[in-house]
Amino acid sequence: MGFKCGIVGLPNVGKSTLFNALTRTAAAQAANYPFCTIEPNVGDVAVPEPRLPKLAAISKSKEIIPARMQFVDIAGLVKGASKGEGLGNQFLANIREVDAVVYVLRCFIDDDVTHVSGRVDPIADFEIVETELMLADLESLEKRRPNVEKKAKGQDKEAKALLPLIDKALDALREGKPARSVAVDAEDEKAWKGLQLLTSKPVLFVANVDEASAATGNELSQQVETVAKEHGAIAVAISAKIEAELAQLDDSEQAEYLESLGLTEPGLNRLIRAGYALLGLQTYFTVGPKEARAWTIHKGDTAPQAAGVIHTDFERGFIRAETISFNDYIACNGDVGAREAGKMRLEGKEYVVQDGDVMLFRFNA
């Protein structure tokens, strides 16, 4: 399990440039005019995991398989998109399919790159996009509510549970607040997600800065950080231009280039870490002679749930999990040493998996 992030923003803010860099492809055409992206582009990215090669070296694994996450480059929205302006509602529908929304906001000045509004103002850009998503949610719920209310009056159990959630969302949206601002009880989470509201999704802010500001940020990216905090979100300053250049270099050249810019790692690494934190994700490992592999799960997942990420049969027939922490695996030079040192644990169905656990599952077929 990875997660899918929708990259959203106004035209010409660097969305497609960032997408191309992150996925190391040229699938999304990055051009200096609005609406150069006319279909959503999807790219899988390997999640950077420095622990994985260390495990593979000890176990002499023939193959290293990192976890993966998915980015969706969604065409630039404009004011009026919820009413069909620009490329309209088809792109709003694409956002419904993602787990999190990445707002890419232009935080660089470049007279050679036009801005759809004729000025550079990342906060105004954010407000335009957020407003369009809220208007789309509002329209969707207002159309849906009468039918749900009718069913609720007819004592339909599902409709009776759904109607208060719709009303909560409508109240927030009419006050100019996104659906994610609504407090939802744990027992209502599934129904709430079923509404597929664009503004109920967790958000990340990416401040796309110029090359000179990549290490320290600038005045515009600081504004983005302030707004992100107000929304309980995370902001990451990235230079899409630098990321695009890094994508063309090998590992040694990347390190040298980053050092020359005062950076210690690519923006991709910071973006993925921020995404993991946003969605409450973590990593566990399976290791052997054939492969060393990273798996993504939610924090709080139990051993059977972690096993189910590999195959549903593993979760159904779960017996126990032989578990070694990453640090113990390294310190003991592998599973044999960990067993001899008493660092290998047999964990049952109630065990909550910890980040970095190395696991071997026993199950009934």
Helical percentage: 40-55%
Distance between the termini: 22 Å
Number of helices: 14
Mean pLDDT equals 87
Strand order of the largest sheet: 2-4-1-5-6-7
Describe the structure.
The structure is a single chain. The protein has 365 residues and is α/β, with parallel strands linked by helices. The protein is 41% helix and 19% strand. It is built from 14 helices and 12 strands. It has helices at residues 15-23, 51-59, 89-95, 122-153, 157-174, 189-194, 219-230, 240-246, 251-260, 267-279, 303-310, 312-316, 326-331, 335-340, and strands spanning 4-8, 41-46, 63-65, 68-73, 100-107, 203-209, 234-238, 281-287, 291-298, 318-324, 345-347, 358-363. A 6-stranded mixed sheet has the order 2-4-1-5-6-7, with helices on both faces. Helix 7 links the parallel strand 6 and strand 7. Helix 4 (122-153) packs antiparallel against helix 5 (157-174). The longest helix is centred in the middle third of the chain and has 32 residues, at 122-153. The chain is flat. The model is unreliable at 26-38 (pLDDT under 50).
Can you describe this structure in just a few lines?
The protein has helices spanning 15-23, 51-59, 89-95, 122-153, 157-174, 189-194, 219-230, 240-246, 251-260, 267-279, 303-310, 312-316, 326-331, 335-340; strands spanning 4-8, 41-46, 63-65, 68-73, 100-107, 203-209, 234-238, 281-287, 291-298, 318-324, 345-347, 358-363. The protein has 365 residues and is of the alpha/beta class. The protein is flat, with a radius of gyration of 23 Å.
